[in-house]
Amino acid sequence: MADRPIITLLTDFGTADAFVGVMKGVILGIAPQARLVDLTHEVPPQAVAVAAFLLETAWREFPPGTIHLVVVDPGVGSNRRPLAAEGPRARFVAPDNGVLSPILQAGGATVLHALTRPEFFRQPVSRTFHGRDVFAPVAAHLANGVALAALGPPVTNPVRLDLPRPEPLPGGGAAGQVLHVDRFGNLITNLPEALFAAERGVPVVTVAGHRIQGLADSYAAVPTGRPGAIVGSTGTLEVFLPGGSAAAALGVRRGAAVTVSFAPE
Amino acid sequence: MADRPIITLLTDFGTADAFVGVMKGVILGIAPQARLVDLTHEVPPQAVAVAAFLLETAWREFPPGTIHLVVVDPGVGSNRRPLAAEGPRARFVAPDNGVLSPILQAGGATVLHALTRPEFFRQPVSRTFHGRDVFAPVAAHLANGVALAALGPPVTNPVRLDLPRPEPLPGGGAAGQVLHVDRFGNLITNLPEALFAAERGVPVVTVAGHRIQGLADSYAAVPTGRPGAIVGSTGTLEVFLPGGSAAAALGVRRGAAVTVSFAPE
Amino acid sequence: MADRPIITLLTDFGTADAFVGVMKGVILGIAPQARLVDLTHEVPPQAVAVAAFLLETAWREFPPGTIHLVVVDPGVGSNRRPLAAEGPRARFVAPDNGVLSPILQAGGATVLHALTRPEFFRQPVSRTFHGRDVFAPVAAHLANGVALAALGPPVTNPVRLDLPRPEPLPGGGAAGQVLHVDRFGNLITNLPEALFAAERGVPVVTVAGHRIQGLADSYAAVPTGRPGAIVGSTGTLEVFLPGGSAAAALGVRRGAAVTVSFAPE
To answer: Which chains touch B (3 or more CB pairs under 8 A)?
Structure first.
């Protein structure tokens, strides 16, 4: 199936308009053999950091050679650059607005080129829908085997977001934050599993004035209605409420502070 | 296309996160030839009975050999069993929480195996996302031809929901309930078409204090703003409001009582 | 890939029920080689004119031979006709309720046939779900190479919506209206790009009492919080609010009046 590359789509277009369908039509017109997979189209309008987080949690799960097409693009039609990027396992097509920052930081994309060659665009290029006119056709041409270097000049200074990193606290703890609130109201943090080495003692997680002692082995291991803490599916600390929404119950949103300290066993 | 099996996906993951996309990435990494079809991802969080209803209305419409992957899994990471099931026309991969009950009851799945063989899982298996780590990879291996029996030991006592059945009333009528409120606000009941044999007289449907006399032949046959009753697309009684939502107008939700009686012609 | 035709789907079914998945199951049972692309399923219930607008903005972007399946069908089960239609670049399957009007007007479909041959339907045909029982199977048979004429008698008098056209104003301007409010709150109008010929002077766009002078070259060229006007991706005037929703900020909905006049340079 190396001849049937996967193209994923991640946008803030929603699904009530036909924007996403139109991008797929353009792709299939150029690369009929491509397989299309939606990551999500419900990124809040122009929320580049949310898109960056979601892409980072998803891209490693796809087979090598997958092309990830990201169109969260508040600067459409301005002089922000459109980019293609490539790493050992994946390719990316996105505006140069920082949405690839976590991937660049992790070495997931090491070669970047600006998209300047109009022969790879849908013509005419509109002022407002480069998803259709620039990004989708370029992703399709990549799927057809066009090399990154053919798309335009190399880029060495891509825009990078200032990604929030956890800060160490005395006693082995750390101060982090909520990176994402998922569909279930779980609070996904940037505090890594490695923090919870057994010899440090019993972790105490504090968020919005609530103290949670110890880590759970499953959501179901915590009584309904009580917040719990667990190492989630992306390897970071997650705060949850069994049978409910931790975000709603604790009144916590994206960006809230979460700290970990350790109590003696 | 027997070599390109269909895998359907039915979850409560919503579409605002990348959970569903990630499951598809895992599947296509193992079974690149699979064709993926979303049933829905908007099952209310952890609403096993809703998922059971939706799966039951959908699975018969797919070609033989289709694999239905269901991840509505409040017990993720606990000791609830993950299952694969097989019947004459379809295969299923789901947690053992009753979501397959209507299919088991109808004989749609007759052989069940627990998923205990980690070589068919994505490693490491997380505590919170068995959709990605257990169910999706197993569905993909089934698509690749792995036999059910290779996945783990047989299961003979799957969890079964107590499915609401209509109760007969004197005079040939029956007392049932609303199983589902659909997008249009239609009230789908568990009262079967067979109840409405012509010789019984004119049916009178009662719901939330409203009496509806006779069955309509189409939605459009009832004046706008008046509730109507019709045999719906899954062969059961449905209450509707032309041009509006019966659920909103009548103040009726899932689980509400609906009775049928018969008046002389 | 001419042997793998694309079928797009455009409905008002939402994605919380399994209606769309069921239609795909029916299609793949008949035409396993078909490639399925969702346009949208979030057309407001029974909003034929919205579906007509969205289809019109999308269909040209798909490769020749694509089959567009539209099920926004308030008249399901009544005597409204189901149709198949064909033009130089695309085929359509839809109820005869005006949803194809913009395409008929533009010459995108020139041959129409009623769907009267039950051997192309799923049996039994229900009273409430012709998407599953009539439209989806017919689209699949078209994908398999069945000719339009085999489906039923020709239709020469399809239902046509009264599409709003801009009216010329003295001085070269025009009075139009908002055809659609998109996900971002942008107001898409029916005022065509050709109106803005340079020699006419500086355009002044008026909507809901707000005056916008001049056209922007990109969304980002207008200061945040100020409404702007731009020629959008479908070649018509669009009113937007950088970083926000023009619809919300201006209190404007579908159908609102928008006028263009010209000031001397």
So the answer is: A, C
Cβ neighbours of C12 in B, within 8 Å: 183
**Ordered DSSP codes for chain A:** -TTS-EEEEEES--SSSSHHHHHHHHHHHH-TT-EEEEEES-SPTT-HHHHHHHHHHHGGGSPTTEEEEEE--TTTTSSPPEEEEE-SSEEEEEESSSTTHHHHHTTS--EEEE---GGGS-SSPPSS-HIIIIIHHHHHHHHTT--GGGSS-B-S----------EE-GGG-EEEEEEEE-TT--EEEEEEGGGG-GGG-EEEEEETTEEEES--SSGGGS-TTS-EEEE-TTSEEEEEBTTB-HHHHHT--TT-EEEEEEE--
Judged by average pLDDT, the poorest of A77-81, B121-125, B218-222, C103-107 is: A77-81
Predicted confidence at residue C265, as pLDDT, reads 63
Q: Does C18 sit within 8 Å of B57, measured CB to CB?
A: yes
- This complex has an ipTM of 0.96
Whether pLDDT at B69 is above 80: yes
Is residue B82 in some structural domain? yes
- Tell me the residue length of chain A: 265
Q: How many domains does chain A have?
A: 2
Q: Looking at CA atoms only, how far is residue C51 from chain A in angstroms?
A: 10
Instruction: Give the pLDDT band (50/70/90) at residue A265.
Output: low
How far is C-alpha C81 from the geometric centre of its chain's CA atoms?
20
Q: Which residue, chain included where needed, has tokens 């397959």?
A: B100
Asked whether A39 and B21 are in contact (CB, 8 A), the reply is yes
Residue in the block written with tokens 């059910």: B148
Residue A2: predicted pLDDT: 56
Beta-carbon contacts of residue B142 (< 8 Å; ≥ 6 apart): B5, B67, B84, B91, B93, B148
Q: Is residue A46 part of a domain?
A: yes
Beta-bridge partner residues of A113: A84, A154
Same structural domain, A41 and A141: yes
**Dihedral (Cα; B185, B190, B196, B197), 10-degree rounding:** 150
* Predicted local distance difference test score (pLDDT) of residue B198: 74
Two structure tokens written together for C93:
């399957």
Residues C240 and C227: beta-carbon distance below 8 Å: yes
Is B217 in contact with C133 (Cβ distance < 8 A)?
no
Q: From the CA of B144, how many Å to the nearest CA of chain A?
A: 14
Rounded to the nearest angstrom, the minimum Cα separation between B35 and chain A is 9
Residues C171 and C146 in one domain: no
Can you tell me the mean pLDDT for C67-77? 93
Q: How many residues does chain C have?
A: 265
Q: Is B109 in the same domain as B20?
A: yes
Domain extent for B196? 167-263
